Amino acid sequence: MDGEQLVAPARPDLRWGLPVFLIGFGSYYLVSLLIAALVPAGDTHSGPLLLLPLSANLLLGAAPVIGSLLRGTGPRADFGLLPTVRGMGVGVVCGAVSVVVGVVLSLAVTHVLHPVSPQIPTGGFSVWTLSYGVFLVVGAPITEELLVRGALWGALAGYGVPRGIVLVFTALVFAFLHLDPPRLLSLFAQGLAIGAARLLTGGIGASIVAHAANNLLPALALLLVA
Prior knowledge:
The protein is mainly α. It is built from eight helices and no strands.
C-alpha cells in the first residue's frame, strides 16, 4: 500500500522477568527445604507423599505466569508458550539429542566418580507413581521452562545479553536447579540441547517439547521399576 511500510511486531519487553525468576527460584528452594525439614526423606518415596516434593516445582511455573499476567501480555505471547508444528519437530530432535548426551555423560561420570545411585520411588506401581511419572513428562517441563527459558531468558534478552551467553547461562541455571552434583555436567549439556530448541524457534513451546522428550526415558524407567 502507498506510503505504508510493513513493520515487524516488537518483541515483548521481559525485563520484569528477572525479579520474577528470583521469586520463583527462591520460593522453590524455600518450600523444598521446609518439606525436607518437616517430612522424613523415606516418607516421600511412596504413597501420597510421593507427590509432596512436586508442590515446590509448581512454584517455578507459578511465578512467571503471575508475573506475565500482571506485567506482560500473558504467557502465550510473552514466552511463546504454544509450539508451532515446526517447533514440535525442533523440540523432538533437540530432546533426542539431550537424551543421548545425558546418557553418555552420565555413564562417563559414573565410571570415573562412582556416585551413589539416587533414590527412586518405592512401594510398587500405584496411582501415585503413575502421577509422578506423568508430572515428570508434562508438569516439570512446563514449570521449569516457564521459569528458566521463559522469565530468565526473556529478561536477559531484554537487557541485551547476547543469545549465545543466554543459552549457556540458562543451561547452567537449569543444571544447578536440580541439586544433583554427580549429574551437573550431564544436566548442563542437556540444558544446552533443550535451550537450543528455544534459541531456534524463539519460544518455550519447542523447549517444553524437548524437555518432555528428555524426561520420557526416566519416567518410563520409573514406571517399569515400580
